Amino acid sequence: MDRRQVTIPASRAPSGRAWRAKGDRFRVRKPPTADQADEPTGDLAQITPPKRAAAGVPAVTHALTYSLAEASVTHTALTLLNMNQTKGFDCPGCAWPDPDPGSRHVNEYCENGAKHVNDEATGRRITPDFFEKYSVTELGRSSDQWLNQQGRLTQPMVKRPGSDHYEPISWHDALGLIARELQGLDSPDEAAFYTSGRAGNEPAFLLQLFARLFGTNNLPDCSNMCHESSGAALHETLGIGKGNVSLKDIYHADLIISLGQNPGSNHPRMLSALEKNKQRGGRIVAINPLPEAGLIRFMNPQTPRGVIGNGTRIADDFLQIRLGGDLALFQGLNLLLLEAEDAAPGTVLDRAFIDSHTNGFAEYAEHLRTTVSWPDVLAATGLTRAQIEHLRDLVLTSERIVLCWAMGLTQHKHSVPTIREMVNLLLMRGNIGKPGSGVCPVRGHSNVQGDRTMGIWEQMPQQFMDDLGREFSFTPPAEHGLDTVNSIRAMREGRIKVFLALAGNFVRATPDSRATEEGIRRCRLTAHISTKLNRSHTVCGETALILPTLGRSERDYQAGGEQFVTVEDSMSQVHASHGRLAPASKHLLSEVSIISRLARRTLGEGGTVPWEQFEAHYGSIRDRIARVVPGFQDFNARVVQPGGFPLPSPVNEGVFPTDSGKAEFTRNAFEALHAPPGHLILQSIRSHDQWNTVPYTTNDRYRGIHGSRRVVMVNPRDLRTLGLADGDRVDLVSVWRDGVERRAEDFRLVAYPTAVGCAAAYYPETNVLVPLDSVADVSNTPTSKGITVRLERLDDPTPEMA
Fold first, then answer.
1. Together in a domain, 289 and 381
2. How confident is the model at residue 405, as a pLDDT?
3. Which helix (H) or strand (E) holds 469?
4. Do residues 182 and 191 make contact, with C-beta atoms less than 8 angstroms apart?
């Protein structure tokens, strides 16, 4: 392996140091490019066998090493000892719930949570001289990792029309610039207000209120790209758009089926809950195209067994399913349950529950009996009938069943019918509303569920709109707004002229990178409320603003004293989040302050909304939320209780808010993914050392990939069939009916135990391959887990040095 090193000048390195993440083999002379990732070429990766266990002492070591490289010892101690504690702040990473107060460990965080919060608490700062030195064009050629490593944003910046540099601007002028652009639009629907799940409940509520007072429901958010399919399916079948289980249900379930998720990297604290389930005698089945270390064995670093012992085996069975085969699996499984009931009437199905609480069972059963084809099921899943029958046997011997899933299920064309079919299984067994059972969509961002509860949705129910209008004495716009995909389409067509983002990295989170960037660049104004630099700041409208804000770990002082925000986790528990660090800059404003001041500048003083009071006292926002959002009565009093409070789940009381008043069985047409000869089905995935769109290093420790992100994982059998070999360099070319070539260049092939016919590569590098129009039925979610690709081998294997 060529290990030449080219030293980066100190002036270009973060904090004057030569940047080199642990495990990287190269330093580069200039910021590595977004297209070429964080190392010169994809074939320089070091590959080791995938890990067979997650966490353990190495997780602690990596967390502390990264944290101490970013923040001081004092800041690291403050963040780690206060994260996810009852008087501390909520981890900005995943939305996995915290144990009850009194049951939390002093170190109630995971490796990736520690990295993320100390990445935010970094001592590095981006000041105006940085933007004077680097043009937008040059920053646009830099990698996601390099941009993130430059540190915290410290004051408002503007890129004016015709300029290629950001320059300082006062808060007064920045907000005035946005207000004038909004006021100058021909229609409020020419603006879009995007929200990421990092935002707390209070700023999210204010943003949707501001947008609707302004006159639009254009409120795209990160849910549109992740769990929108879950919400659509659960609304239709159960009448709710979220899960109905608690941590206690996870602990006490007889059977947990984990589908399309990688908790070892994406929500590691889930492993502690799964470990408790195993200790209580529960059984766990992992269904995934990739073997994931955390679902094989968990080395809990907070227990002697996890440090010096063998840890805990998590999954009793692993079904390596083909991408998109989950619908076929559950149709086959549910047919087997019907046949088992035929053989032993009254012993398999919960007829009392079906008769009293569900609608449409007879039609569903007839549909299943007459349409399921076992050859189709086996071809779609890649499983044997014996494997599916074994899963049936586990279901038959389990009184309490929980289904957990993540984006591996939600980002397919047929994601909504897949989740509806999973609900059918639970309804047949009476596993909705019973302790230890239910649906558990695992959210990947800390408050994405809370933002939706607060009204961040382009099509909120009419009851919410009526209550919002009544509370603030206005008539909210009636027409549904644009989601993420439709907002990008509208930007490309010139129908969206102003784009405001509350947190997130819109350009790198969205599909069809070229289409997204084209749309953003057509806007008259783009503005991003952010803590750190990211790719979205380099893809600008004619005028572009960076509005730096407080991080969740920082203290928030307003005219009314120190404030806090609240969040809602994946299991509908609402709790407070109190920052503990000093702000990174005296120029930072809170998200609440930015939105409140912008609303006043745009809508004018006076009116029915006390924006100035909202900014001074966040409790006054919560008082209004309590009168608008169901389940939040006495919000201020209940949220200060240790651990907060749970939102009610009507289905757990036997109430289903559907049109029929009952849970709905659904009939779902069979669908599966099939690649033409010479092609594979690709899924985009996150590496272990990555938080959402931001990679911290170029390593994926659990999968055994080090020093590169431009890799594509392919089953050895498929490599032989395609005439390719481990280590070959290829371009990935997606195949879509519009005939447009979408190409991700220069990836190294890695022989990997994926499902046959399937491949995997990292996002956001492969977002360019996802066509904007390739979306899930009903939910309109991009199909990032079901991309048909061909692999084109590159003739020249020689790496090109920077």
1. yes
2. 97
3. helix 462-472
4. yes
CATH number of the CATH domain containing 32: 2.40.40.20
According to DSSP, the residues that pair with 801 across neighbouring strands are none
Q: What pLDDT score does 96 carry?
A: 87
Is the domain of 478 the same as that of 410?
A: no
Query: From CA 240, how far away is CA 231, in angstroms rounded?
Result: 7
Instruction: Average the pLDDT over 765-783 and give the result.
Output: 98
Helical segments of 25-152, H only: 57-70, 73-82, 111-120, 128-133, 136-140, 144-149
Is 612 in the same domain as 709? no
The band of 438, judged by pLDDT with boundaries at 50, 70 and 90, is: very high
The mean pLDDT of the chain is 91
**257-273 confidence digits (pLDDT tens):** 999 999 988 888 899 99
Does the pLDDT of residue 585 top 70, yes or no?
A: yes
Residue 667 lies in a domain: no
Distance CA 779, CA 409 (A): 13
CATH number for the domain spanning 599: value is 3.40.50.740
**Domain of 395?**
228-441
Pick from 445, 423, 527: nearest CA to 223:
445
| Mean pLDDT score, 438-451 | 90
In this structure, are residues 557 and 579 in contact, taking their beta carbons and an 8 Å threshold? Answer: no
What was the pLDDT predicted at 44?
62
Nearest C-alpha neighbor of 204 from the set 779, 634, 627, 594: 594
pLDDT for the residue 347:
96
Confidence bin at 95 (pLDDT 50/70/90): confident
- For the segment 52-72, the average pLDDT, to the nearest whole number, is 75
For residue 746, tell me if it sits in a domain: yes
**Within 10 A of 10 (CB to CB), how many other CB atoms are there?**
10
| Angstrom distances, CA of residue 46 to CA of 155, 343, 686, 706, 711 | 40, 54, 18, 5, 11
* Distance, CA of 412 to CA of 682 (rounded, Å): 11
Q: Is residue 638 part of a domain?
A: no
- Taking Cα atoms as reference points, which of 715, 727, 713, 787 lies closest to residue 757? 715
* CB-CB contact of 787 with 683 (8 Å): yes
Q: For the chain, what percent of residues have pLDDT higher than 90? A: 80
How high is the pLDDT of residue 68? Answer: 72
Residues 409 and 266 in one domain: yes
- Asked if 248 and 150 sit in the same domain, the reply is no
278: domain CATH number? 3.40.228.10
Query: Same domain for 538 and 426?
Result: no
Count of the separate structural domains present in the chain:
3
Count CB atoms within 10 A of the CB of residue 483.
24
DSSP letter for 675, please: P
- Give the DSSP letter of residue 62: H
H or E element, residue 47: strand 46-47
Q: Specify whether 143 is located in the same domain as 205.
A: yes
In a domain, 563, yes or no: yes
Beta strands 680-685 and 758-762: pairing type? parallel
Q: What is the 3-state secondary structure (H, E, C) of 594-659?
A: HHHHHHHHHHCCCCCCCHHHHHHCHHHHHHHHHHHCCCCCCHHHHHCCCCCEECCCHHHHCCCCCC
pTM: 0.92
Angle at Cα 771 formed by Cα 767 and Cα 776, nearest 5°? Answer: 100
Q: How far is CA 713 from CA 45, 685, 752, in A?
A: 12, 11, 5
pLDDT surpasses 60 at 217:
yes
Question: Residue 566: which pLDDT band, with cuts at 50, 70 and 90?
Answer: very high
Q: Which of 598, 618, 633 is the last residue of a domain?
A: 633
Question: Confidence band (pLDDT; 50, 70, 90) for 446?
Answer: confident
Residue 527 sits at the vertex; the CA angle it makes with 170 and 139, to the nearest 5 degrees, is 95
Indicate if 215 and 232 belong to the same structural domain: no
Final residue of a domain: which of 392, 414, 441?
A: 441
Q: Higher pLDDT residue, 413 or 796?
A: 413
Is residue 452 a contact partner of residue 223, using CB atoms and an 8 Å limit? yes
What residues pair up with 703 in beta bridges, in sequence order?
none
